[in-house]
Amino acid sequence: MPEPTDVPEIMISTSVDAGTADAAGADGALDPLGPVDDQTLMSLIGISVLAVDGVARLEPTVKSLFRSGILGTARGSEAPDGISVTSFGVITDVTVDLATTARQQSRAVAESVQHVVREVLEAHDREAGRIRVNVLSIDQGPSAAG
Amino acid sequence: MALANSTTRLGCGREIDEVWANADAPPNTHELECPDCQAARASLAELNTATHELRSRDQEDPDLRLSAELVSKITSIARAEVRRGRRIPLRPGPADAEEADLTVSEQAVATVIRHTCDQQPDIEARRCSVEVADDTAGLDPDAVAIRAHLRISVAASTASPGRIEDLRQTIIAAVEDQVGVTAQTVDIDVEDVHDA
Fold it and tell me: Which one of B65, B76, B102, B171 makes the best mutation probe of the A interface by having the most chain A beta carbons within 10 Å?
């Protein structure tokens, strides 16, 4: 069984596309540590998950749209699709729906994502509850068959 | 029933629910003469009017209406979810995939299998279905076992049992490498033969 893929630093923003970086805030700067609200937490998790090697993109689901507050999204909120956060006091459940690349093993990528999400939660004074990672598709690039 | 208590009973002894049940109809003989029931009917009529007003106001409020773009997005996502099929656990654990923390969609695994098949010369993948294997005896306890069923079309010149067995082994390796589950069984049906 391959080892989980490399785990990135929590606050990597350089590899995130412009749309996601905007989600981090108007000035692109997010507090790397300390308490944050759920909306900000979703953005931070989105940035960190996209930086994991083997993650192709986040995948929206109907459930994640509603969990993340579809009306909030309709009014211009920039929470990333494919991430949902539910907090019970300091305990936080997270669900990540994503696509992986065929270059990396989906299970190893999912385990790395789970690890990264746990680190983000701990960095922001949250207790990790249930962290679910669903690989909804596997992108077959030109080198996938190798 | 919780509503059947003293606070819902009118002075005449009737329950407010009885008045409500008849609110859309003309007053009955009792209600024509009873001041309590007449007051209750008037009050319920006001409530009904206010409810209708609130509802129509909400329907006209642009802030409460989803944009066409968002509706289209939801519809598109819902369709994609149907195509993705069931979820398969990536780690052994609860039998119910809904309870698993790490999952992969049936469609994602099927895509890996079909893509692997299509890499082979003169073999075309058709339909593919995947499910969690029931019998995992003798397999790695740390890996989830799946059963796949692939239908293919082969070129007439290459239709041999040896090619099919090679394909099966290639699929087993690809599923392990790209997904991280064990393809315990790969059933392959040659359902068509085509010209090369």
Answer: B102
> Nearest-CA neighbor of A55 among A94, A1, A110, A12?
A110
Q: Touching check for B81 and chain A: CB below 8 Å?
A: yes
Task: State the smallest CA–CA distance between residue A29 and chain B in angstroms.
Answer: 28
Q: Say yes or no: ipTM exceeds 0.85.
A: no
The stretches of A51-137 forming alpha helices (DSSP H) are: 62-67, 70-74, 106-123
Q: Are strands A83-88 and A127-139 parallel, antiparallel or unpaired?
A: unpaired
| Whole-model pTM over 0.90 | no
What is the structure's pLDDT at A146?
Answer: 40
Q: Which residue of B has its CA nearest to A95?
A: B101
Select from B73, B143, B180 the Cβ nearest to the Cβ of A106. B180
Q: Spell out the residues 6+ positions from residue B190 whose beta carbon is closer than 8 angstroms to its own.
A: B151, B152, B153, B154, B159, B164
B133 contacts: CB under 8 Å, gap ≥ 6? B145, B146, B147, B184, B185
CB contact under 8 A, A134 and B104: yes
| Rounded-to-integer distance, Cα B90 and Cα B94, Å | 11
Q: Which positions ≥6 away from A138 have C-beta within 8 Å? A: A99, A100, A101, A102, A106, B104, B108, B109, B111, B112, B178, B179
CB atoms A65 and B143 under 8 Å: no
Paired strand residues for B124 = B153
Selection from B102, B104, B123 nearest residue B112 by Cα: B104
